[in-house]
Amino acid sequence: ALPIEKRELLVDWMKRNTTGDKLIRAGVPKGWEVADKTGAGSYGTRNDIAIIWPPNKKPIVLAILSNHDKEDAKYDDKLIADATKVVLNTLKATE
């Protein structure tokens, strides 16, 4: 495990990440904190792995990966945001 000061630095970097603004961050309610790491590749592969802090609740760790059948397919950021909403609703995290 990372020492606490290194862990705090990593979480700070992940919270300030902007590449995930249209992914998991777009699927969480306003006022929630998100620290994430995104990725993309061929076959329209898109992923986002995040720690989500709902107000006054324990954090949620969420990883979402999507891909397509064709190598030159474009990835779909909205799919990740929509999947985030479905997961949070299923977990009743927004209540």
Main sheet summary: 3 strands, antiparallel
Radius of gyration: 14 Å
Q: What's the structural domain tally? A: 1
CATH topology: Double Stranded RNA Binding Domain
| Beta-strand content bin | 25-35%
Would you report the number of β strands? 3
Briefly note the structural class of the backbone: alpha+beta
The helix/strand series, from N terminus to C terminus, equals HHEEEH
In spatial order, strands of the major sheet run 1-2-3
- Count of individual helical segments: 3
Give me the CATH architecture, please: 2-Layer Sandwich
Top-tier CATH class: Alpha Beta
If you average the pLDDT, what whole number results?
A: 96
Measure the end-to-end span: 32 Å
Instruction: Please estimate the helix content.
Output: 25-40%
Low-confidence stretches: none
3D shape: globular
Domain Beta-lactamase class A catalytic: 5-65
Protein name: Class A beta-lactamase
Organism: Bacillus wiedmannii
InterPro entries: Beta-lactam/transpept-like, Beta-lactam_cat, Beta-lactam_class-A
